[in-house]
Design a protein that fits this description.
By secondary structure, the protein is an alpha/beta fold. The chain has a single domain (2-308), classed as NAD(P)-binding Rossmann-like Domain (Rossmann fold). 40% of the residues lie in helices and 16% in strands. It has helices spanning 10-22, 42-45, 58-64, 83-101, 124-136, 158-164, 182-194, 214-225, 236-245, 250-264, 295-308, and strands at 2-5, 30-34, 49-52, 70-73, 105-111, 141-147, 149-150, 166-169, 177-180, 201-205, 211-212, 230-233. Strand 5 (105-111), helix 5 (124-136) and strand 6 form a beta-alpha-beta unit. Helix 4 runs parallel beside helix 5, helix 6 crosses helix 11 and helix 8 packs across helix 11 (295-308). It starts with a strand and ends in a 10-residue tail after the last helix.
C-alpha cells in the first residue's frame, strides 16, 4: 500500500497518474489523503482508496497510514503562520503515525541547500530541511527529494508575459542555477515509491538537465512563445512589500524573502554531474518516465499555451 498526500497539488497531480498506471504491475494498492475528494477526477476516485481530511490532522493520518508500506509526504505551504513551527507542527502527527503503523519507506519533497552556508537562514528552505530531520529521526527509510525552484513558478508570470513581455524575480540577471519541472519530481518520487529496495536516510537531488540564468530563461521564452520576453529584477524590499500587501503572515513573508536572498547567493548550487535519481534496482514500468525535462521543452508544452491561449475567466451568471 502506497499513500499519497497532497494528491491535488502540483506534484501530486503529476504523481498520481504515474502510480495508478504502474501500481498493478507491482502488486500495489493506492490510498490518497485529500481534504476535498471532489477535486479528484472521477476516474482517479474509482482507482484509489480515499481518506478525507488534512494530513496534518492526527486522526486523519492514523486512518491513512494503517497498513501502509510507503508514503509520499509533502507539507503544503501556509502563508498564515511562521513556517518553521508550522512545517514541523504539521509533520509531527505523521511521524507518530509512521511508528504506530510500521510504515517502512517515506519519500518527501524537500529543497537543495543542506550543507551550504545559508542553509540555517534560508527561510522556507530551512523549514523544509527541519521537516527532513524530523522524519529522518523517526526510524523510517527516508529519501528527501532535494529540489531547486520549479519551472512551474513561471506560470504565475503568464499574464505579465502575455500583456507586457516581462517576467520578474529577485536573482541577478546572469546567475545560472538549476531548475526543475514538476513532472521530473513526480517521476523520481514514483520510481522510489515503486522500487523500495533502498534503506536508511538520504537526499536525492532532483534537478533539470541544465543551469539557467534569468537572461537564459528570457531568451528561451522569447523563442518558444514567439514574442519578445525580458527580465525585470525586483528588489527584496519590493518583494516584501508585495507579499505583505497580499495579507500574508509577516513571519512567512520574512521567510520567503530570506529564501530568495539565500538562493541569490548560491543556496541551490549542486555538485557537477548531479543526477536526478539513482537507477532503480528493480524494474520500473515504462509508463514512469525518466526525468530530464529541458526548459525549452517545458516552455513549448506548458508555458507557451498558458501565455498564448489563456483559459477563459469564469463568468458569474445570475
Amino acid at each position: 500500500m502506497i499513500v499519497i498526500t497532497a494528491p491535488t497539488g502540483n506534484i501530486g497531480r503529476s504523481l498520481l497518474p504515474l502510480l495508478i498506471e504502474a501500481a498493478p504491475a507491482h502488486g500495489e494498492s493506492l490510498r490518497v489523503v485529500v481534504r476535498d475528494p471532489d477535486r479528484l477526477p472521477d476516474d482517479v476516485r474509482e482507482r484509489v482508496e480515499v481518506v478525507t481530511g488534512s494530513h496534518g490532522d492526527p486522526a486523519t493520518v492514523d486512518r491513512a497510514f494503517a497498513g501502509a508500506d510507503a508514503v509520499f509526504w509533502l507539507v503544503p505551504p501556509d502563508g498564515s503562520m511562521p513556517p518553521v513551527a508550522a512545517y514541523r507542527g504539521f509533520t509531527r502527527p505523521a511521524v507518530r503515525a509512521f511508528a504506530a503503523h510500521g510504515v517502512g519507506h517515506v519519500v518527501g519533497v524537500s529543497a537543495l541547500g543542506r550543507g551550504t552556508p545559508y542553509a540555517a537562514r534560508a527561510g522556507l528552505v530551512t523549514a523544509t530541511l527541519a521537516v527532513d530531520d524530523l522524519i529522518a529521526g523517526s526510524g523510517v527509510a527516508y529519501r528527501a527529494l532535494a529540489c531547486p525552484s520549479f519551472y512551474e513558478n513561471l506560470l504565475d508570470e503568464a499574464d505579465a508575459i502575455r500583456e507586457h513581455g516581462v517576467f520578474t524575480d529577485t536573482a541577478a540577471p546572469d546567475l545560472r542555477v538549476p531548475r526543475v519541472a514538476v513532472a521530473d519530481i513526480a517521476a523520481t518520487a514514483a520510481r522510489l515509491l515503486l522500487d523500495r529496495s533502498w534503506g536508511g536516510v538520504g537526499s536525492v537531488p532532483v534537478v533539470g538537465p541544465e543551469e539557467l540564468s534569468p537572461e537564459d530563461l528570457a531568451r528561451v521564452m522569447t523563442e518558444r512563445c514567439g514574442r519578445p520576453v525580458r527580465y525585470r529584477r525586483q528588489s527584496l524590499d519590493e518583494l516584501r512589500a508585495e507579499l505583505l500587501g497580499y495579507g500574508l503572515d509577516p513571519a512567512f513573508v520574512a521567510a520567503m524573502v530570506e529564501m530568495k536572498h539565500a538562493k541569490d547567493h548560491g543556496l541551490d548550487a549542486v555538485a557537477p554531474g548531479t543526477t536526478h535519481c539513482p537507477p532503480p534496482t528493480a524494474p520500473v514500468p515504462s509508463s514512469v518516465p525518466v526525468p530530464g525535462t529541458t526548459f525549452a521543452r517545458w516552455c513549448t508544452t506548458t508555458l507557451a499555451p498558458a501565455v498564448l491561449h489563456p483559459a477563459p475567466e469564469a463568468t458569474d451568471v445570475r
